[in-house]
Amino acid sequence: MTVQEPGFALLSSVGARPVLGLVAPERENALLLAIIEAVSNGPEVEPMAAAVARLITDATTTDVCFVHVLDDTERSLTLAGATPPFDRQVGLIQLPIGSGVTGWVASHHEPAVIVEHKESDPRYMPIPALRGTEFTSMASVPMATEPGGLVGVLNVHTVARREFTNRDLRLLLVIGRLVAGAMHQARMHRQLAARERAHERFTEQVIAAQETERRRLAGDIHDGISQRLVSLSYHLDAVGHILRDDPTEAAAQLRVARELVDLTLDEARVAIGGLRPPVLDDLGLAGGLASLARTVPQLEVSLELADERLPEHVEIALYRIAQECLQNITKHAKASTAWVRFGTYEGTARLEVTDDGVGFAVGAAVAAGAGYGMQSMTERAELVGGELRVTSRPGSGTTIVATVPAG
């Protein structure tokens, strides 16, 4: 008679005969150490599952091993690892929870063993691609971990009939727990990476949408308001030449109108530049920064600029950061010289703006709540996946460095 521990669901002991365990006792520790090493090699689920399946069949008396992993919906299992020739089915076999022996194990969180005649077991569901009819006996155990719960199911099959002992099941459960812990971490890593990619795509889409709208508004202002104001200016000039009967009043009104036109034109140009820096389209970031430096004649600006193009949203972010830096220098730094440096290295773009001004205590500024300009620059860098670093102290000038992904 076969002794069965509670929850192990041994189905048949007919014709039972003494057999050796899955692996000799003296080799169990070596197998477990090999499993630990395999699951520690990286966060990818499929390579990990394939290595575990191969180790189990190499070290035990089983013929094939399947590692089924719970998907993110937690409603089905996907074959993530298998020994040849079934490794070609990885990613193609999916089982709903509760379907087949594997699904039963997943839903009940209990091991199951079929010694023979699996077709007569009500839980068994043939999967032609896995050629279950070619194997006589099987053992299936849940892979579960305390923090993550059920992660998947581990199955081993043998061509020859065999009894899986309780000791065999305990070993498989230990392996399952080791794999489950690593799988849980791998799933968390994959989900985090997916969220980060989604966030990056969303950020790029938001910035692209903002810049598209700004480009449209800039075009509307340029083609509409600006052109009408230019036309009005020509008409006023013409009126100035025509009106000669009342020179005093006409001249006064025309001067006022002319001043209003000039002011409005200046404001329109500023608005266009604020919505979308057109210089980036024509000259790229290096040319845009050089042009920006010429807008602050009160400063001597030294430039070291690499003539490299970046994605549009990255160029815009770095241009606006440089623009804010130069504005802050002219307003607050009391500096005579500024240095603007831009370049890329190993996939990272770096913008540095330094001045020889009065500097400030960075810690005190942060504690007091940095001004809008500093907050805006930080947010712009973070929106494109980068960061902003500020170095300054009273009397020693200020250096602001923005580093962002160049791709």
Provide an overview of this structure:
The chain is an alpha+beta fold. It has 3 domains: 25-194, GAF domain (Beta-Lactamase, 2-Layer Sandwich); 197-275; 278-405, Histidine kinase-like ATPase, C-terminal domain (Heat Shock Protein 90, 2-Layer Sandwich). The protein has 9 helices and 11 strands. The strands form 2 sheets. It has a 6-stranded antiparallel β-sheet. Strand 10 and strand 11 form a beta hairpin. The longest helix is centred in the middle third of the chain and has 77 residues, at 166-242. The protein starts with 24 loop residues before the first helix and ends with a strand. 30% of the residues are buried.
Short descriptors:
407 residues, alpha+beta, Beta-Lactamase, Heat Shock Protein 90, 6-stranded antiparallel beta sheet, 9 helices, 11 strands, disordered N terminus
**What order do the SSEs take from the amino end to the carboxyl end, as H and E?**
HHEEEHEEEHHHEHEEHHEE
Largest sheet: 6 strands, antiparallel
Q: Report the count of strand segments.
A: 11
CATH C-level class of the largest domain is: Alpha Beta
CATH topology of the largest domain: Beta-Lactamase
What count of domains describes the coordinates? 3
> What is the 3D shape?
elongated
- What share of residues is helical? 40-55%
Mean pLDDT: 78
Query: At CATH's second level, what is the architecture of the largest domain?
Result: 2-Layer Sandwich
Q: How would you name the CATH homologous superfamily of the largest domain? A: GAF domain
Tally of contiguous helical segments = 9
Strands of the widest sheet, in order across it, are 3-2-1-6-5-4
Strand content: 15-25%
- SS content category: alpha+beta
- Multimeric state of these chains? single chain
Q: List unreliable stretches of 5+ residues.
A: 1-20
Distance between the termini: 67 Å
Radius of gyration over C-alpha positions, nearest whole angstrom: 36 Å
